[in-house]
């Protein structure tokens, strides 16, 4: 009987030491990945994070940081996949807000502002006072408006080529769309003081996207839009830096 107890105890010790060793290996790989990320070695960082995921695929940090490294490499589809995994594994409000924010950034890079706006909106539910997320949300809505105008112009041009009757229909449709746009246009936030959470680093919106947005907006709305665009609002994802 004593022999069985001793044998069982040895097995438990062995399993426990193996678990601790696995956790230490995971943390070491994440730490090494973070160091490479800070040195702008995004290929090296990606490799370390992928090794960490093989060691423990059910932890938020490695998936989130791998998403950041892939984003920096402009592999946006792959970054989205890792962020989505991280979002499902997030257990705190800051982690959930951060990964939803970065999913929004990824959708903007993939020219899907409607999806981006939804992610930013969800992120704000977790962190209502994050100024960077709120500004990015406004930018996404401006981009949606630009796409709607471009689609309206295409329809109008098709109507002109199809004859006078089609043109009149197109003009009526455009007029309705313009009224709808004017009612739903983005406005400056009027809430309480919105304070950024201090995590992440902000950068300006890409020049081509900024110009395209301003070119598509009515003159009376440009001042509001320019204030948003010029305020270093397009926040870029950064390593979560959980060095353990």
Outline the structure in words.
The protein folds into two domains: 18-91, Serine Threonine Protein Phosphatase 5, Tetratricopeptide repeat, CATH 1.25.40; 92-244, no CATH class. It has a two-stranded antiparallel sheet. The protein has helices at 2-38, 42-55, 60-72, 76-89, 93-109, 113-126, 131-161, 164-183, 207-215, 219-229; strands at 201-203, 234-236. By secondary structure, the chain is mostly helical. Residues 166-182 have a biased composition (Basic and acidic residues). This is Photosystem I assembly protein Ycf3.
SSE topology sketch:
Elements: H1 2-38, H2 42-55, H3 60-72, H4 76-89, H5 93-109, H6 113-126, H7 131-161, H8 164-183, E1 201-203, H9 207-215, H10 219-229, E2 234-236
Antiparallel strand pairs: 1-2
Helix pairs in contact: 1-2, 1-3, 2-3, 3-4, 3-5, 4-5, 5-6, 5-7, 6-7, 7-8
